[in-house]
Specification:
CATH superfamily of the largest domain: Golgi alpha-mannosidase II
Strand content: over 45%
Number of helices: 1
Number of strands: 33
Number of domains: 3
Strand order of the largest sheet: 3-2-1-4-29-32
CATH class of the largest domain: Mainly Beta
CATH topology of the largest domain: Immunoglobulin-like
CATH architecture of the largest domain: Sandwich
Structural class: mainly beta
Radius of gyration: 30 Å
Shape: flat
Length: 433
């Protein structure tokens, strides 16, 4: 078993090493001793037992990893071909909800011999498709193409829409189906829908409160009524939302600080928030919380006036976030940094007794690392295998840009320093005496 510690330099204060679970280590005495990371190994620890028959890598169609995943079809069971042969719970109308009269038919009126099933829909009836898993992913402003093969005995108009439980996501389209046999028809939607809105003219049923404080609807406002509450949050919507605009009108009623506007919330410990007028009303910053630990992504001096209404806007496009305060761009950032660019695992080869140190350094800088082998008796040399390349490097039939390189490292002891190259995977095989 092993653990990793990250060291960060602070100008004018020397170096400090931070152990998330084990406390603070003393600062190094000399600059040449400073390392980016430290790996501490317990050579007596036992890992999980792995069965002898477990091996290999495979692809399994779980949670729509194939249809609705690698195959990016948005409509589930689009040809009404689901059967109990695939899943005992399947029917030809799985993923479809019928309003009125509809049935799946296989008769002489079929489209062709390879696509036998079709839906017979009575006049005034409709069907709705649920998509895969949690629904069809729809992004505001994006265009969606619809196509269908249809026929009608006397010709008719087919209305096609895109909607969720909150209402229409795009303007419905009318498709004129002719009376002469099967023919393909197409329509195009542009999604223009507000995912969530609330003027607090009623209750706050769609909002969930976490943390301290007390929230209540008062005169068309959702108010946090405590002056002393910290890290209090209310949230609404879906954690799967992305590529959206968030608009809030906020007023500071009282208290020593401003307000927090959260976005990208996954759970109570993982989210972003814009801390406007924080730090005793002296600074405004965007903070990212991951499993309860916070880091600052962007910060500026700033304060909030009591009783003044502020227009707050947050535009999220993938990992790009732009923030607006009273209609003016306040700042932006791209959160493209890996959650932690340094990962390691240390195992023991049961047959040879060798310690195998495996390290991934997924950053553009080398990582000078202290390895503490926990007092293990080891040889002074290690066999090294390194795979390092630029992030965009790709192997082809004629070029092997990414290839393993083997070498020997001397200077191994129960505690030593090794520098792992940028953008690399490294294996150190260390013989135990």
């Amino acid at each position: 078993m092993s653990r990793t510690t990250r060291t960060r330099l602070r100008l004018g204060l020397g170096a400090s090493a931070f152990l998330p679970a084990a406390g603070l280590l003393p600062s190094p005495a000399h600059a040449e001793d400073v390392t980016d990371y430290s790996v501490t190994v317990d050579p007596t620890a036992q890992g999980a037992k792995i069965g002898k028959t477990m091996y290999g890598v495979f692809f399994e169609d779980i949670n729509r990893a194939a249809d609705g995943g690698l195959y990016a079809e948005l409509v589930q069971n689009r040809s009404f071909e689901y059967t109990t042969d695939d899943n005992k719970s399947y029917t030809p109308l799985t993923a479809w909800t019928v309003s009125g009269t509809a049935q799946v038919v296989d008769d002489d009126g079929l489209l062709n011999a390879r696509n036998r099933d079709y839906l017979s829909l009575a006049a005034g009836s409709s069907v709705t498709n649920s998509g895969y898993n949690t629904g069809i992913r729809v992004e505001d402003g994006k265009r969606y193409d619809f196509s269908v093969w249809a026929r009608a005995a006397d010709g008719t108009a087919l209305t096609v829409g895109l909607a969720d439980s909150g209402g229409a996501l795009a303007t419905a389209r009318q498709v004129a189906v002719k009376k002469h046999g099967w023919a393909p028809y197409r329509a195009t939607f542009t999604a223009t829908h507000t995912l969530l809105t609330d003027d607090f003219s009623g209750d706050a049923a769609q909002w969930t409160h976490t943390g301290g404080g007390s929230w209540a609807v008062q005169d068309g406002q959702y108010v946090e009524t405590s002056d002393t509450a910290e890290n209090t949050m209310v949230q609404a919507g879906d954690t799967g939302w992305h590529d959206y605009d968030l608009h809030v009108k906020a007023v500071k009623k009282s208290g020593k600080e401003g307000f927090l506007v959260a976005f990208g919330v996954k759970d109570t410990g993982t989210y972003y928030w814009w801390n406007i007028g924080g730090w005793n009303n002296t600074q405004t910053a965007v903070e990212q919380a991951v499993d309860g630990g916070k880091s600052t992504l962007i910060a500026k001096p700033g304060s909030v006036e009591t009783g003044r209404a502020y227009d707050i806007g947050i535009k999220v496009r993938g990992r790009q976030v732009t923030l607006y305060l009273d209609g003016q761009e306040w700042g932006s950032f791209t959160d493209d940094k890996p959650a932690e660019p340094f990962r390691q695992v240390v195992t023991e080869d049961k047959k040879t007794g060798d310690l195998i140190v495996k390290v991934v350094n997924a950053q553009s800088a080398a990582a000078r690392t202290t390895l503490d082998l926990g007092g293990a008796k080891v040889a002074g040399k290690a066999r090294v295998t390194t795979l390092a390349a630029a992030p965009g490097a790709v192997n082809t039939e004629t070029s092997t840009t990414v290839a393993p390189v083997t070498s020997t490292f001397t200077g191994v002891s129960d505690r030593f320093t090794y520098t792992f190259p940028a953008n690399s995977i490294t294996f150190l095989r260390i013989r135990q005496k």
